[in-house]
């Protein structure tokens, strides 16, 4: 940056009008007061951004209608005498489809790769000293040798080209890998969420809902860009030619972030869990029918396979390097950023808005009822693989012991023999076979800890003692309410034995894996129904008590 009282630095910002990130970088540079900005954009300048009008009048900002996909005289004019260039990736926006369809590989290549090549060549020609690439953290999603889609691969190519241009012809470069920018002025994230809420898509949580993401408030993105340019200007070590992750340094669960946004705008937060593999299979089937049979593309961004994989994965990044090297740290907290974003979209609000930041982290009543987190993940279908495994094992045991024509003792004996045979074969297998390594499980894994056994026996003894106490109360006729409860329980138990044990067992298994997830998804409705039923029973009890003689009523009350 310029010294105090010195001449302003001339900078050029590509996509400074049509890109959400680009507009924010321009506003931050002009707000700093030490920069003269040239806005480079393919959109015509007939409708300038209202907030920048005073800067246009003062001469501190000028507009250049340039398509970076083609080198033209206007391209060179916009870069002439500029000390620094901020090249903004126009496809970097949370949940946003790029301006060119992701299936249009040629169009994306021209926009990202050819555009970056033209920017670098023009920087060399015009003697630009610094080039900051404001890109995406998605370039590392999927691993070092593979990319989740064509867009991420082309973004990585553009970033690599800019970093490789460092130290050539006096040009210093660096790249910012921004993670999910959001904020006021983004015409994609909040409108898409509101659209999803109105169409019914936003009520669902795909997968466990516990995957974390890093989000970055837009003012922090712009601030990081200025920090990177300052570090390049000062020649700070380990900056030139390096990439830096930029986040708000406050990772949070992706579905909590969406819930806060929707609740803040007055819409119901997502609450219905759907298995990720099931939704992914539906998306693939829908894609086949739409593209092959109906010859059309899906218009809903929430029902594509790539979006589903993204929404169920973890996307967190370590930006400590940016903090240590270029001096970046968030200037706006994530909570304040969400509040400001919601306030800026008040026209999309659905009634009363209320940002409930902390309540979303509380477990549901179904989770509290189940107690154990692992059991909750299984019965609430948070872990698809573990749930299906447990369900399959339980139904196999149900068939083995109840549906086969063997006795219980013979079934148990055959099962133990089968288990012993599997252990024997597993024990003699080599450590690797056909190129696959076989992990050996030690016998200690099958041991049961003393404390675990004591806990189970203590629980069983406690239940036994409680039962004896209840029977003692019934025998002494001390509490007629307890007596009627015991009689009702025995009647229900007797009623169950009217059906076959295999049928009762199968119904119990089905109910076990459906009751809790239904209760979690319809918690309010079920609790309202229970409350209404309780009020009805109380009313009936009062009417009954009023008609009974006093000598009888005292035993019923």
Q: What would you say this structure looks like, in words?
A:
- The chain contains 21 helices and 15 strands.
- The protein has 557 residues and is of the alpha/beta class.
- Among the domains are: 230 residues, Rossmann fold; 121 residues, no CATH class.
- The strands form 5 sheets. Strands 3-2-1-4-5-6-11 form a 7-stranded parallel β-sheet, sandwiched between helices. It has a two-stranded parallel ribbon with strand order 7-10. Strands 8-13 form a two-stranded parallel sheet.
- β1, α1 and β2 form a beta-alpha-beta unit.
- α1 crosses α7, α4 packs parallel to α5 and α15 runs antiparallel to α19.
- The protein is elongated.
- The N terminus is likely disordered.
How many DSSP-defined strands? 15
**Count, helices:** 21
User: What is the subunit arrangement here?
Assistant: single chain
Give me the side-by-side strand order of the main sheet.
3-2-1-4-5-6-11
CATH topology of the domain at 1-179 and 215-250 and 317-331: Rossmann fold
Task: Report the sheet with the most strands, covering strand number, pairing sense and barrel closure.
Answer: 7 strands, parallel
Low-confidence stretches: 1-5
Short description:
By secondary structure, this protein is α/β, with parallel strands linked by helices. Helices cover 53% and strands 11% of the residues.
Compile the SSE list and pairings:
Layout: E1 9-14, H1 20-32, E2 35-41, H2 53-58, E3 61-65, H3 73-79, E4 84-88, H4 105-126, E5 130-136, H5 150-164, E6 172-178, E7 181-182, H6 189-199, E8 204-206, E9 212-213, E10 216-217, H7 218-234, E11 243-246, E12 252-253, H8 254-264, E13 272-274, H9 276-293, H10 305-311, H11 320-325, H12 334-344, H13 365-370, H14 373-379, H15 384-403, H16 408-428, E14 432-433, E15 436-437, H17 450-475, H18 480-496, H19 501-521, H20 523-547, H21 550-556
Parallel strand pairs: 1-2, 1-4, 2-3, 4-5, 5-6, 6-11, 7-10, 8-13
Antiparallel strand pairs: 9-12, 14-15
Helix pairs in contact: 1-7, 4-5, 15-19
């Amino acid at each position: 940056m310029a010294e105090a009282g010195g001449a302003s630095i001339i900078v050029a910002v590509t996509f400074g009008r049509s890109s959400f990130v680009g507009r924010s970088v321009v506003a931050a540079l002009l707000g700093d007061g030490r920069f003269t900005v040239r806005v480079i954009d393919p959109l015509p300048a007939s409708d300038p951004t209202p907030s920048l009008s005073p800067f246009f009048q003062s001469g501190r900002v000028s507009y250049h209608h340039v398509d970076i996909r083609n080198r033209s005289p206007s391209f060179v004019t916009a870069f002439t005498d500029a000390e620094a260039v901020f090249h903004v990736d126009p496809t970097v926006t949370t949940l946003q489809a790029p301006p060119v369809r992701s299936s249009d590989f040629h169009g994306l290549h021209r926009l990202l790769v050819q555009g970056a090549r033209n920017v670098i060549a023009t920087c060399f020609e015009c003697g630009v000293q610094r080039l900051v690439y404001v890109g995406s953290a998605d370039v590392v999603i999927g691993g070092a040798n593979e990319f989740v889609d064509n867009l991420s691969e082309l973004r990585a190519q553009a970033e690599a080209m800019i970093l490789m241009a460092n130290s050539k012809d006096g040009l210093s470069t660096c790249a910012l890998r921004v993670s999910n920018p959001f904020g006021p002025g983004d015409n994609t994230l909040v409108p898409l969420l509101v659209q999803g809420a109105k169409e019914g898509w936003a009520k669902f949580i795909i997968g466990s809902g516990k995957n974390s993401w890093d989000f970055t408030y837009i003012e922090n993105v712009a601030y990081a860009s200025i920090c990177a340019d300052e570090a390049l200007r000062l020649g700070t070590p380990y900056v030139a030619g390096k990439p830096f992750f930029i986040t708000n340094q406050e990772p949070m669960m992706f579905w909590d972030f969406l819930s806060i946004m929707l609740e803040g705008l007055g819409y119901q937060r997502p609450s219905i869990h759907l298995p990720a593999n099931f939704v992914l299979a539906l998306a693939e089937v829908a894609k086949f029918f739409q593209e092959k049979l109906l010859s059309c593309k899906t218009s809903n961004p929430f029902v594509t396979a790539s979006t589903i994989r993204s929404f169920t994965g973890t996307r967190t990044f370590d930006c400590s390097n940016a903090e240590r090297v270029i001096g970046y740290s968030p200037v706006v907290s994530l909570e304040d950023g969400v509040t400001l974003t919601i306030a800026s979209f008040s026209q999309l609000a659905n009634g009363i808005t209320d940002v409930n930041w902390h309540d979303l982290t509380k477990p549901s009543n179904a989770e509290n009822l189940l107690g154990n987190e692992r059991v909750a993940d299984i019965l609430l279908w948070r872990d698809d693989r573990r749930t299906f495994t447990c369900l399959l094992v339980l139904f196999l045991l149900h068939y083995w012991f109840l549906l086969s024509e063997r006795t219980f003792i013979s079934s148990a004996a055959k099962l133990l023999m089968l288990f012993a045979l599997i252990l024997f074969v597993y024990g003699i297998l080599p450590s690797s076979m056909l190129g696959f390594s076989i992990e050996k499980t030690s016998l200690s894994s099958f041991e049961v800890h003393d404390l675990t056994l004591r806990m189970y026996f203590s629980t069983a003894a406690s239940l036994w003692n409680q039962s004896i106490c209840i029977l003692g109360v019934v025998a002494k006729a001390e509490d007629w309410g307890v007596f009627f409860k015991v009689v009702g329980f025995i009647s229900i138990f007797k009623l169950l034995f009217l059906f076959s044990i295999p049928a009762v067992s199968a119904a119990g298994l089905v109910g076990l894996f459906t009751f809790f997830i239904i209760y979690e998804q319809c918690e309010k409705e079920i609790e309202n129904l229970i409350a209404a039923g309780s009020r009805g029973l109380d009313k009936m009890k009062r009417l009954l008590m009023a008609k009974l003689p006093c000598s009888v009523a005292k035993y019923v009350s």
